[in-house]
Each structure stands twice: as C-alpha cells, then as structure tokens.
Amino acid sequence: MDSKDLRIFHTVAQEKSITRAAEVLGYVQSNVTARIRQLEKEVGIPLFYRSKKGMILTKAGHNLLEYSGKIIHLLDEALKSVQYTAAPSGPLVIGALETTAAVHMPKLLKAFLHQYPEVKLSLCIGHTNDLMEKVLDYRLDGAFVNGKVDHPDLEQVLVFKEELVLVSENSTAELSDLMSKPMLFLGRGCSMRDRLEQWMEEEGIEDTNIMEFGTLEAILGGASAGLGVSLLPKSAVKMMEDQGLVCTHPIPDHYRHSHIYFVYRKDLFQTCAFEKFLEHIG
Questions:
Q1: DSSP summary character for residue 140
Q2: C-alpha span between 206 and 224 (Å, rounded)
C-alpha cells in the first residue's frame, strides 16, 4: 500500500470531495480519482459511497481512515526527525482565530520570522473547535484558541488576555437598546457568538436577528454603518474607535474577559522551529 495513496485517501475522506482534495494536494482531479480506484482495487472493497453529498466513507473506509491518520503522522514525524537541526528552519503550520490573527499575529510573526528567516510559517484561520480538531489530527502544529481547553492529548499556554466589548456605530444609545439590533458575527462556531447568545438568554432576549459575515473587516464595516452590533475584543476595534467610526460599550463582568491559549499535541515531535516559537510566545 503506497503512502501517497494513503495521503490521497486521507485527504478525500477529510474533504468529502475529490475536487477539494485535488485542490488541497495540488493534483489534477483525474489523478486523485484514479488513485482512489487503485487503492479500492488493492484492498478489494469500496472505501467510499459516491453520492450527491460527496464522498462518504464506507465501514471499511472508516477503518482505514483510523490507520491512515496514524501512518501519515508517523511518516511525517520520521521526516521531521531526520531534518531536525540546531538552527530553526523548515515548515511550521499554526492556526489562529480571526480576531487574534488580525490584532496580534502581524507583530508577533514579523518578529519571529525576522529572527528565524529560514522557518516557512503558514497561518490557518478558523474557529476554536475547528482549530482544535486540526491540531488533534496533526494538520496544525499548534493553534491560538479561545478559552482553556480540557483534553488529555493537548498542552496549552496562556498567551493573551482580552477585554470584550459590544461594538456599535458611533452612538450614545443605551446598552438595552443596542441589544435589540441585529447581531453581526463570523458564523457558527464563533466563540464570541456563543458568549453573546448566553448573555442574551440571561437577559431574556429572544428571536435575535443574527447576520453572518466572512471577515472581521466586514463585521466592523457593518457595525460602523449602523447595520447592527457585535461582541469583539477591544483591541480589535481600537483603531476604528480612535477614528470615531465605531463606539464600544462595556458588558457584564462575567462575560467581559477572554483568554487566548496556544494549544498543541503532547506527542508532537517538536522541531527546533516549534521550540523557538513556543519560547517566542511564552
């Protein structure tokens, strides 16, 4: 069983699509299809159901997926071990929340890469649950997530402490009036959205109109235009607030504080680049 075929199978299983897997791997679609068919011929049983919903794993496919992840991880760890050098270099794949990436990552990463220019760092943006899943699946070396995690396979380091505020257009409206406006968020899985929904439930506010946006910039633009309000770290809106484009409002103390942790697997093979990154954020 070829390791390249296992990687292709693993990617198709994760993406649930031949097309998306080909894009991720940088292969042509016909090559991915042919390699999956060859692997199914080799094991003598279908690994996927082909449906309108995409590529769905069969029972045999689920069994192989469990092993393919472990095998790919071991191969990657073996490669890292022979490439380990005293000088930080090579790939480093880090995940971060949208707000953390916008506010903290530019300065942090610029300083790190200036000191270690041979490191090839990639940044993946996502929500906390999505990022943790990718760390656990070895797709990320580590990630900045919201809140302390409770998982036996993860280590965590507290990196940033944030103050959350309600963001609106430049207005002197009362907090109770602002709470009746549409809420602007990045989408389901957003920790700020979960926190605001808990707060609104506590206040007895129902049937809230939630509008989903793709980027932090779009949310800030919507808030500035009076389209609605949002719950965000104060550091993420400081520039626009200083310019008079938005207004921030304090929220109840037990919802106000947010802690950003850097998480990584306990069994991760720590290259010199990763060790230096931990020192850099510590």
A1: S
A2: 24
Residue type at position 41:
K
Tell me if 208 sits within 8 A of 183, measured CB to CB.
yes
Distance CA 166, CA 178 (A): 9
CB 161 within 8 A of CB 146: no
Burial 45-76 (b: 16+ CB within 10 A, else e): eebbeeeeeebebeeebeebbeebbeebbeee
* pLDDT at 189 (0 to 100): 65
- H or E, element range at 56: strand 54-57
Helix (H, G, I), strand (E, B), or coil: what is residue 184? strand
Whether the predicted pLDDT of 257 surpasses 80: yes
pLDDT digits (tens, 9 = 90+) for 96-151: 998 899 889 999 999 999 999 989 999 999 989 899 999 998 889 999 999 898 89
When the pLDDT of each residue in the chain is averaged and rounded to a whole number, the result is 87
Report how far residue 282's alpha carbon sits from residue 268's, in angstroms, rounded to the nearest whole number. 18
Residues in a beta bridge with 74: none
Residue 200 has pLDDT above 90, yes or no: no
Alpha helices, H only, 170-210: 175-178, 191-202
Q: In whole angstroms, how large is the CA radius of gyration of the chain?
A: 22
pLDDT on residue 77: 73
CA atoms within 13 A on the CB side of 5: 15
Cα–Cα distance, 190 to 89 (Å, whole number): 33
**Domains of the chain, first to last:** 3-83 (1.10.10.10), 90-161+259-281 (3.40.190.10), 162-256 (3.40.190.10)
